[in-house]
Design a protein that fits this description.
about 675 residues, alpha+beta, Heat Shock Protein 90, 4 domains, 9-stranded mixed sheet, 21 helices, globular, DNA mismatch repair protein, HATPase_C_sf
Length: about 675
C-alpha cells in the first residue's frame, strides 16, 4: 500500500496537474518509472485508445456493478492470484476496495496498460515478454491458467463504478511499488471530443498521475484498486434505494389511510438484505443510522467459507412457501450481486463440482452421444468413484474431463465483505410429485469436432467444450434454470432459460434443467465487447447450440422412457383399487397434457407445518387450516368427497400449469375460491 504522503500528493496534483511533468509516450514513461532516482516524484500521462473502446466502457457497456467487479476479479485470475478481497462499505457503499495477491504490474506493464486501452498484451508474444503470459503458451498465465482477458479493457470497467480510482501495484522481487491515480473523462459524441485527440489521432480518455515508491518488502506482490468516490447511482443500485423508498412510501400511505395508493405500490420487502440507510451521512467517516437493520442468512460469527451455503439454504427455504422462489423477491440487490458474481467468476462450487460427484449423490449418470441421432449411454457410479473416474473408465477412448482441476497456480478464492464466493449451484435431488420419478439425472459429455475439412474462413478457429445437463425435480431458485456458458472459467451472463433457443416444445422438462458448458477452446471470439452476449452468426455459437440441443433431446428421451416405466409400475400397483370417477377424470386430464409423466400425488394435511413436510417429501399439498372449504365440520363421507374433489381440482390446475410461479398461499387461495363456488353454503 502507498504511504499517506504519496497518496496526499497524488490527490492534490489531480487538481493541479499543470504543475506535474507530462509524459505521453509509452517508452518514455516506462523509462521514467524505471529510473530509481525518480522515487517519490509524480509524473502525468494520458489514457489513450485508438478506436474509442473506452467510450463504450464509460457509456455503460457493463450494465450492473457486478459486471465491473467481475472484470476486476478476472484480472486477478489472470495475474495468478490465489486470494481476492473486496470491501464495499455495505450498506453505505461509499467506497469499494479490491485487493489481490497476484503477480502485480511492473512499470513496463503499467506503462503499456495506460497507453493501449483495447489492445491487451495477453495471449500474444508481447504478453510473454512482459511476463503476463506463460513462456510456453501465450494462451495461459505463467501459473498455467487459461487467460480470461483478451480485449484489454477490464481494468477500466471500474469507470462504471467511479470516475476516479487509485491503483497500487507491486511485483515480487522488486524494490518499488507503483501508485497511479486515474481520472476518466466522460465520452461525448459532439465536437468537444476533438480536443481530446492527440496528433496521432489517438483518443485521449483521461489522465493518470503515477509515482514510484520504494518498498523494502521484496517478497510483497499484488494489486489494489481503491474507489473512494462511488457514483451516487451505483450506490443507490447496490443499496436497493428505489425499492426501500417505495416501501417507505407504501408504509406512509397505509399509515395515512390511503389504501388505494398503497395497493398500487407493488413492491415487497426482500426476505434477506444488508440493511437500509435512508439518510446517508455527508461525512463518510461518520457512522450512518440504519433505518432498517440488516437481515442476513448468517450470524456475525459464521465463517466466510460457509456463508454462501447459508445463502443458498435461505433461498431454498423459500420453496416451502413458493414453488419456484426467485432471487429478486428473496434478496436485495447487494446479496443478489454476491450471487451473480459467485456464478460468473472462476471459483469452486458450494458443495462439489458436478464432475466430482460420487454415488452418494444419488444421481443417474449418462454419457452424451455426439452422433446426430445418438442416444445417451448409462454409466455406473460405484463406491467413492467420481463422475470423472466413471467417464474415463467406462467411455470408449477414455476421455478425461478437465474442468474443475486445479492448475499449478493453485486455488482461487474471492472474499467479499466476509463472504467467500462459491458457485451457488447444488446437485441434490428435489423430489416433487409433479416431476416424475425419484432421482436426478446428470448427462455429461465432450465435443471437439474435427474441422480440418471446413473452410478456415468459416470454422472460426479450433473449438471444444465439456458440459453437463442436470435434470432435477425442481430448480431452485428459478434463475438457475437454463444454460450457463463458461469461457475460460468465467461467465458473462446468467442462465439462459431458452437453452439457446431450443425449439422443441418441452416446456415442463426445460423448467427442470440446469446446464453448464465449459468451453475448452474457442468461442471467446464470438463474445461481444460487453462479454455478456454473443454474436450468434459466429460458427462457434452454432457448434454450442447444436451440441446443447442434442444433449437436451437425449435427456428428454431418457426421461420420457423412465417416466413411462414409473407410470406403468404405478398403474400396476393401483389396478386392484376401484378409482372414483373424479380422480380418474383429473388423472386423464393430466395424462392428456403430460403423456409420459405420472399424475402427481396430492396430500391434504391438517396444518401448514404438515403440508410443508409433505412438500419436502415430494407431494403437492394442501393445509386444512389455510382452506376454509376443507376445514369445516362435516360428516366423514362428505369430508372425504370434498377432499377428493379438492385433490382432483389441484391436479387439473397443475396439468394446465396454472399453479406455476404462484406461492403456496396463492395456490391454496385459488383452490379455496373455486371450491366455494361448488360448496356455496356458508357452512360448507
Amino acid at each position: 500500500m502507498a504511504s499517506n504522503e504519496s497518496q496526499t500528493l497524488l490527490r492534490k496534483t489531480v487538481g493541479e496537474s499543470g504543475d506535474v511533468p507530462l509524459i505521453d509516450e509509452r517508452e518514455e514513461l516506462a523509462a521514467w518509472l524505471g529510473e530509481k532516482t525518480n522515487e517519490g516524484q509524480v509524473v502525468r500521462t494520458r489514457l489513450k485508445t485508438s478506436d474509442r473502446v473506452i467510450a463504450r466502457v464509460t457509456d455503460g457497456i457493463y450494465r450492473q456493478p457486478s459486471s465491473a467487479l467481475r472484470e476486476l476479479i478476472s484480472n486477478a485470475w489472470d495475474a495468478d492470484a490465489n486470494q481476492v478481497t473486496v470491501l464495499t462499505d455495505a450498506p453505505r457503499f461509499s467506497r469499494i476496495y479490491v485487493r489481490d495477491d497476484g503477480a502485480g504490474m511492473s512499470y513496463e506493464t503499467l506503462s503499456r496498460l495506460v497507453h493501449s486501452i483495447g489492445g491487451s498484451a495477453k495471449r500474444r508474444e508481447e504478453g510473454q515478454k512482459l511476463g503476463v503470459s506463460s513462456e510456453d503458451d501465450p494462451d495461459r498465465t505463467p501459473g498455467g491458467r487459461l487467460l480470461i482477458g483478451k480485449i484489454g479493457i477490464g481494468l477500466f470497467s471500474v469507470s462504471q463504478l467511479a470516475r476516479r480510482f487509485r491503483i497500487v501495484t507491486k511485483v515480487r522481487g522488486r524494490d518499488y511499488r507503483l501508485i497511479a491515480e486515474v481520472r476518466i473523462r466522460a465520452y461525448s459524441e459532439d465536437g468537444e471530443d476533438d480536443a481530446a485527440r492527440d496528433d496521432d489521432d489517438n483518443y485521449v480518455s483521461g489522465d493518470v498521475l503515477i509515482s514510484r515508491e520504494y518498498s523494502s518488502d521484496r517478497d510483497a506482490h499484488g494489486t489494489d484498486i481503491i474507489l473512494d468516490e462511488v457514483k451516487p447511482r451505483v450506490r443507490d443500485m447496490l443499496r436497493s434505494a428505489d425499492r426501500w423508498r417505495a416501501l417507505d412510501e407504501k408504509a406512509a400511505a397505509e399509515k395515512a389511510g390511503d389504501f388505494e395508493t398503497a395497493a398500487n405500490i407493488r413492491v415487497e420487502e426482500p426476505k434477506y438484505h444488508t440493511g437500509w440507510i435512508e439518510r446517508l451521512s455527508q461525512d463518510k467517516d461518520q457512522p450512518a443510522v440504519l433505518s432498517r437493520p440488516p437481515k442476513l442468512p448468517w450470524s456475525p460469527d459464521a465463517p466466510a467459507d460457509v456463508r454462501m451455503g447459508l445463502l443458498i439454504d435461505a433461498v431454498e427455504h423459500e420453496s416451502r412457501s413458493t414453488e419456484r422462489p426467485d432471487l429478486a423477491k428473496t434478496l436485495d440487490t447487494y446479496l443478489e450481486t454476491l450471487w451473480t458474481l459467485a456464478l460468473s467468476v472462476p471459483v469452486g462450487y458450494v458443495d462439489k463440482h458436478p464432475f466430482d460427484l460420487t454415488a452418494d449423490s444419488g444421481i443417474g449418470l449418462y454419457w452424451i452421444s455426439n452422433e446426430p441421432r445418438g442416444q445417451a449411454t448409462e454409466l455406473t457410479l460405484s463406491d467413492s468413484q467420481t463422475v470423472r473416474d466413471a467417464v474415463r473408465e467406462q467411455v470408449a477412448g477414455h476421455p478425461e474431463l478437465e474442468d474443475g482441476k486445479i492448475a499449478k497456480a493453485g486455488d482461487f478464492r474471492v472474499n467479499i465483505d466476509g463472504v467467500e464466493l462459491k458457485r451457488p449451484i447444488r446437485f441434490k435431488f428435489v423430489k416433487t410429485a409433479t416431476r416424475g420419478f425419484g432421482k436426478p439425472m446428470l448427462f455429461v459429455g465432450r465435443f471437439s469436432p474435427n474441422l480440418q475439412k471446413v473452410d478456415p474462413s468459416l470454422r472460426g478457429g479450433g473449438f471444444g467444450l465439456e458440459g453437463y445437463v442436470f435434470w432435477n425435480g425442481m430448480v431452485v431458485p428459478k434463475e438457475n434454470n437454463g444454460v450457463l456458458t463458461r469461457i475460460r472459467g468465467t461467465a458473462g451472463a446468467l442462465f439462459d432459460p431458452t437453452f439457446m433457443k431450443y425449439q422443441v416444445s418441452e416446456q415442463t422438462r426445460l423448467r427442470q434443467i440446469t446446464s453448464e458448458l465449459f468451453i475448452t477452446r474457442g468461442l471467446d471470439a464470438a463474445l461481444n465487447i460487453d462479454r455478456e452476449s454473443f454474436n450468434f452468426s459466429h460458427p462457434h455459437v452454432q457448434f454450442v447450440a447444436i451440441w446443447l440441443h442434442r444433449a437436451i433431446r437425449q435427456l428428454t428421451n431418457k426421461h420420457k422412457d423412465l417416466s413411462k416405466r414409473a407410470r406403468t409400475e404405478k398403474l400396476e400397483q393401483t389396478a386392484v383399487a376401484v378409482r372414483d370417477s373424479v380422480t380418474q377424470h383429473s388423472e386423464a386430464v393430466w395424462s392428456s397434457r403430460h403423456v409420459s409423466d405420472p399424475a402427481p400425488e396430492i396430500a391434504i394435511a391438517t396444518t401448514r407445518k404438515e403440508a410443508e413436510a409433505a412438500r419436502a417429501d415430494g407431494y403437492m399439498a394442501l393445509a386444512r387450516t389455510d382452506l376454509p372449504s376443507l376445514s369445516v365440520a362435516l360428516p366423514s363421507s362428505e369430508r372425504t368427497e370434498r377432499d377428493v374433489k379438492a385433490q382432483a381440482l389441484m391436479r387439473v390446475l397443475a396439468a394446465y400449469d396454472v399453479l406455476d410461479d404462484r406461492s403456496y398461499d396463492e395456490q391454496q387461495a385459488l383452490i379455496d375460491a373455486i371450491l366455494k363456488i361448488f360448496f356455496a353454503s356458508p357452512g360448507k
